């Protein structure tokens, strides 16, 4: 279980996240919803050590993550799919998938399981990641994290700029993951995706959690996001 | 990463030719060929760092000159050659650890600055610490403490054998999982961290590997050439190595060998002309302009790859030099 208590975080002297507390249980999809600049992405970055934690606690399975280097997050069971779809653009699809396998010394056969799940990636295994479409890149970013079999998955705006068919595919993928016991913290502004995939949501504004909602109403969400 | 069959054949051809040369060439050319192999090793050392890991070292001469000078200092004071080689390895390890630690700690442009400063500082030190280094006059290794005790052919075989072994090992490294980690770190450092790589450790390790290759070249240089001057540590040679790598084609191993051979040969042929640096400079500018991926990417007109009119152009390998 991921548990944040009284988290204050930011970059250098600038505080972005104020007193944020939230939990993500195993097999649960929790959405973190808010307008641009609300502090959602910074919250995720603080969890994986890419933003500075000023105070508060971050725990996964009882283990504190504060002050731990980002390189250790994968070994603590944290998977992070950033907003920027950060791939190694000069490497092929297969080489991108081999990077976490070598990093964590995982069995290579996991690659076969990933190709079974993502047949499109198998077709493009020798293609440079930089030449993939936006949707394929997102699938590759997911596939690479899934190789690590994370206990908690942090996903930052996974469907931004993607076609509706790919949005549905990504949504289905997230639901499949949580059915397997992975807890997912989803930062998203797509009201449809949030309603289809999230079990509950935290509404975030100006770096603070404004409310925690169990029933996610489309109208309330749209109103909160200013759509 | 290098995968094409053409480059595979080119590499094999270079190694075979290097080993066969002693059978056909007279001693003078053998001596020149051994010299070129030593410079090629220095070029390979930078290609591992710059081409494969994207770490722009402008101080490669430090890793070359320090072990060379250490051997010179020990043997010129009557020390045995074995002790001199051990001392050279120890000195290289110390300097590589120190430079690697601070260069990777600062990162980015800092890597350039730290490596360049190391090279410049050691060059100045070699100039002013005349009691130890001989200053501007440098050091000269006695014949008995060098490879000169061997025949020229035997000397060549030692250099060619070591050179081939280093090239083979570098290719193995580039194609291994570790080579993939280097390529991934070069491509996207932050992402590699999130996937579980200790990026700083990888950078330090590859700096040490690169320094090790440059150090082998430096030790061979001292044992073959026997004359050591401060230039072997300086920013001039450090910058020249960068030119060799970019001229031949980074991230190919064979390209930098070609670049070093071409540049050094042209320098020797043209140095009777006063303005030869200008010619070499223009050559470098021409290659960077018309063959940004280096000479190795040039193909004979009949062997150009066909591509569709709207198809993507082949891009030069990233070097980390912007």
Structural features, described:
- The complex is a heterodimer of chains A (227) and B (322).
- With 227 residues, chain A is an alpha/beta fold.
- Helix content of chain A is 34%, strand content 28%.
- Chain A has helices at 40-48, 93-103, 110-117, 119-123, 134-146, 164-179, 191-197, 218-225, and strands spanning 2-11, 14-24, 29-33, 52-60, 63-64, 78-81, 152-156, 183-187, 200-205, 208-213.
- A six-stranded mixed beta sheet of chain A has the order 6-7-8-3-9-10, with helices on both faces. In chain A, strands 2-1-4-5 form a four-stranded antiparallel beta sheet, covered by helices on one side.
- In chain A, helix 2 (93-103) runs parallel beside helix 5.
- Chain B is built from 13 helices and two strands.
- Helix content of chain B is 70%, strand content 1%.
- Chain B has one domain (9-297): ABC transporter involved in vitamin B12 uptake, BtuC (Orthogonal Bundle).
- Chain A binds chain B through residues 48, 50, 69-75, 80, 82, 86-91, 95-96, 98-100, 102-104, 131, 144, 148, and chain B through 1, 177-178, 180-181, 183-184, 186-188, 190-199, 312, 318.
Please provide a brief summary of the model.
Chain A contains 8 helices and 10 strands. Chain A is α/β, with parallel strands linked by helices.
SSE topology:
The complex is a heterodimer of chains A (227) and B (322).
Chain A: E1 2-11, E2 14-24, E3 29-33, H1 40-48, E4 52-60, E5 63-64, E6 78-81, H2 93-103, H3 110-117, H4 119-123, H5 134-146, E7 152-156, H6 164-179, E8 183-187, H7 191-197, E9 200-205, E10 208-213, H8 218-225
Parallel strand pairs in A: 3-8, 3-9, 6-7, 7-8
Antiparallel strand pairs in A: 1-2, 1-4, 4-5, 9-10
Chain B: H1 5-24, H2 27-52, H3 60-76, H4 81-106, H5 109-128, H6 130-133, E1 139-140, H7 152-175, H8 177-187, H9 189-194, H10 199-225, E2 227-228, H11 235-248, H12 254-270, H13 276-290
Antiparallel strand pairs in B: 1-2
